[in-house]
Hints:
Elements: H1 4-22, E1 25-31, E2 40-48, E3 51-59, E4 64-70, E5 75-81, E6 90-94, E7 97-102, E8 112-114, H2 117-152, H3 156-183, H4 190-197, H5 205-213, H6 217-220, H7 223-244, E9 255-257, E10 263-265, E11 273-279, H8 284-300, E12 305-311, H9 316-325, E13 331-333, H10 342-346, E14 354-358, E15 364-367, H11 371-382
Parallel strand pairs: 1-7, 11-12, 12-13
Antiparallel strand pairs: 1-4, 2-3, 2-5, 5-6, 7-8, 9-10, 11-14, 14-15
Helix pairs in contact: 2-3, 3-4, 5-7, 8-11
Subcellular location: Cell envelope
Keywords: Cytochrome c-type biogenesis, Disulfide bond, Redox-active center
Pfam family, one: AhpC-TSA
Amino acid sequence: xxxxxxxxxxxxxxxxxxxxxxxxxxxxxxxxxxxxxxxxxxxxxxxxxxxxxxxxxxxxxxxxxxxxxxxxxxxxxxxxxxxxxxxxxxxxxxxxxxxxxxxxxxxxxxxxxxxxxxxxxxxxxxxxxxxxxxxxxxxxxxxxxxxxxxxxxxxxxxxxxxxxxxxxxxxxxxxxxxxxxxxxxxxxxxxxxxxxxxxxxxxxxxxxxxxxxxxxxxxxxxxxxxxxxxxxxxxxxxxxxxxxxxxxxxxxxxxxxxxxxxxxxxxxxxxxxxxxxxxxxxxxxxxxxxxxxxxxxxxxxxxxxxxxxxxxxxxxxxxxxxxxxxxxxxxxxxxxxxxxxxxxxxxxxxxxxxxxxxxxxxxxxxxxxxxxxxxxxxxxxxxx
Length: 384
């Protein structure tokens, strides 16, 4: 036993040294079009979005470049070509192993990075994203002309059909992203797939949170992972608020300043039919919709239609200018807190324009109707 202990200690020491020495050592072997010979390729990292720091550089020679370094934990980095900084970058993960980069000189995003776990999974993710991107483009090319024409003609049936078809396509595409997430819970790039899931308007935090919980701690600790956790928390808060303003619920009363500084409450302005309209001076779709709402209000106000608009503006001058320019003669209120508007939070608003249609009792009978659909609903309620 006495003879064995010193030998064991030496073996353990050697084993420890061997493991530690190789931890995080990476080699990046890149190829690029020879027209870039003589330029530098920069390896950069980003602690914050839009703030990249150069950690290494390599001269491009005979269409090749090489980096060597140590990254104790996998880290997202970027390859940027000298003089081409505005044209984007090649994303890769610095991690232990031999990383191969084949730079696409025309579209840097389509460069191929392989050789280590996170880079191989990223390559799969990029292929999936490209595949889905082509499906999106095909759909838009096929339907956008018809959709734009329908908007001009206020053809809500066509608008709704195209939107529904698009959402159905998004749901099908999201099933592919969900499968990818479940197969790659330890890969850093997987967190990026979550961003795509939010394009499905029907997705709830309760749908996404169980997927997020499956991710490894390392993925959750990335900057995007932390932002995703925060977003899911906010999402849950919005959904809780939205449940309180569902169809057939009584609209919560609220009070806020008018442009002249007077405090106005919802209960003061209730009509036979009342529309609560969330908008802002900077919201293009809101401003585009305003002329139709003005025409409807002018026609139906004397019959019992009232409108109260809640603005998500922060600049009082711009708010007042937009009211005047768009000839909005109905009730206007705002706390001028942007997306922090307390009324918007209470009503679970996560996008504008947003509308709630109330009957004479203050019950919410419809939401987010536009154009002729909105006018038809208002007329139906006024006739009751």
